[in-house]
């Protein structure tokens, strides 16, 4: 290709432009979970789909987006108190830990975002997003507490029942959908607080995919 | 609804309803749209703007959404030329008045970024909502002190709107103070 024909790079899978601002594992679970690895995607150098994808002019854009998600997660978990108390260098360390794949460096800061006051049983609200390819809306995100008024821990099943009840089929019927996080299907009885602390993505959100049961 | 919510979704809906009432009276084009569980206020607003070399007509679209994470309204917008070409962040930035630029550049949280519209899934520009409480609290405190009725949406939009080319007619403020 000639240099002058090359414009912004973008990626696509079976006709669907891939949103760079979504975690790659989420994209795979949502769009290609039945595919064999390595995941084959198409790289484009022309025809950037302006209506579908955010522009990504530099690495700073990715950092800004990541930090924006972390900040939003903390707004839900701690009314932004923990993230706001951190210094700029702590924010930088979080990003650099992720960027350079340094687990300890990342978790030195992230562990503070996973704490909650001793007198509480969990976060204020759980940061989550539920994705389905069958709906217009890109995702569902609502306020949801990890603990019920009676002190019982809410489960993944409780969340789904409240926020997208159609996903949970009647008990006697076959489940039409898989509920997937990081490529696995956690039991619906799993406490949401536990999932939030241990199965969140680096941006501190639980990204949950609802996909039709595989037909093999 | 939570008792301790600073600005809950129901309150947002109430102020938007009042806002729409006035909009319909003066015919400036705001609509209320609900899509299952989402609430938003989109406006189609055509404006004429001068670009560097030629006179171009730019069409702006503004949406007011409610952020449950920050419990404040958020302004989403996009702009395109009449032939459908979208404006880039650079173009948008060039249209921001100098007096706002410095304030916006002070931090990534105060700036205009491109984000995915949470209902439409398409790229829009957004003014980050995390500082909204900071500037709205004194406005609300003050109006309570002088016993004046304030529509949160009207006040908020009159503050953030002009930064991105959206100017509310003064009649909105008069309508708000007349409401019970």
From TrEMBL, chain A:
Residues 59-115 form the Autophagy protein ATG5 alpha-helical bundle region domain. It is a peripheral membrane protein. GO terms for cellular component: Atg12-Atg5-Atg16 complex; autophagosome; mitochondria-associated endoplasmic reticulum membrane contact site; phagophore; phagophore assembly site membrane. One of its GO terms (biological process) is vacuole organization. Keywords: Autophagy, Cytoplasm, Isopeptide bond, Membrane, Ubl conjugation. Its main location: cytoplasm. One of its GO terms (molecular function) is Atg8-family ligase activity. Residues 4-45 form the Autophagy protein ATG5 UblA domain. It is found in: Cytoplasm; Preautophagosomal structure membrane. InterPro entries: Atg5, ATG5_HBR, Atg5_HR, ATG5_UblA, Atg5_UblA_dom_sf, ATG5_UblB. Residues 125-210 form the Autophagy protein ATG5 UblB domain. Pfam families: ATG5_HBR (PF20637), ATG5_UblA (PF20638), ATG5_UblB (PF04106). Forms a conjugate with ATG12. Part of the minor complex composed of 4 sets of ATG12-ATG5 and ATG16L1 (400 kDa); this complex interacts with ATG3 leading to disruption of ATG7 interaction and promotion of ATG8-like proteins lipidation. Forms an 800-kDa complex composed of ATG12-ATG5 and ATG16L2. The ATG12-ATG5 conjugate interacts with RAB33A; this interaction is bridged by ATG16L1 and promotes ATG12-ATG5-ATG16L1 complex recruitment to phagophores. Interacts with TECPR1; the interaction is direct and does not take place when ATG16L1 is associated with the ATG5-ATG12 conjugate. Conjugated with ATG12. PANTHER family: AUTOPHAGY PROTEIN 5. Belongs to the ATG5 family. May play an important role in the apoptotic process, possibly within the modified cytoskeleton. Its expression is a relatively late event in the apoptotic process, occurring downstream of caspase activity. Plays a crucial role in IFN-gamma-induced autophagic cell death by interacting with FADD. Involved in autophagic vesicle formation. This is Autophagy protein 5.
